[in-house]
Amino acid sequence: MPNIKSAKKRVKVINTKTMRNKAVKSDLKTALKKADAAVAENAENKEEVVRAAIKKVDMACTKGIMHKNAAARKVSQLAKKLG
């Protein structure tokens, strides 16, 4: 356990950021799974679901949770599956 005040604050801040990042990652994974399932089942709303997944990927990239090249690769893969 940290003894210095600034170190104690860093522990709090890191925990807060970790929880936020974990929530965004979980939401992203769920959206990607839904998009894959919609494309595999050839659902009538597959374009809408894929568009939502691409938006989640872009948001994760913007927040620094996902590298920009990894995000571009995911978007490309989703577009390829859709088209």
Automatic annotation (TrEMBL):
It comes from the Bacteria. GO terms for molecular function: small ribosomal subunit rRNA binding; structural constituent of ribosome. Pfam families: Ribosomal_S20p. Keywords: Ribonucleoprotein, Ribosomal protein, RNA-binding, rRNA-binding. One of its GO terms (cellular component) is cytosol. InterPro entries: Ribosomal_bS20, Ribosomal_bS20_sf. GO terms for biological process: translation. Binds directly to 16S ribosomal RNA. Belongs to the bacterial ribosomal protein bS20 family. HAMAP family: Ribosomal_bS20. PANTHER family: 30S RIBOSOMAL PROTEIN S20, SMALL RIBOSOMAL SUBUNIT PROTEIN BS20C. NCBIfam families: S20 (TIGR00029). This is Small ribosomal subunit protein bS20. It comes from Hominimerdicola aceti.
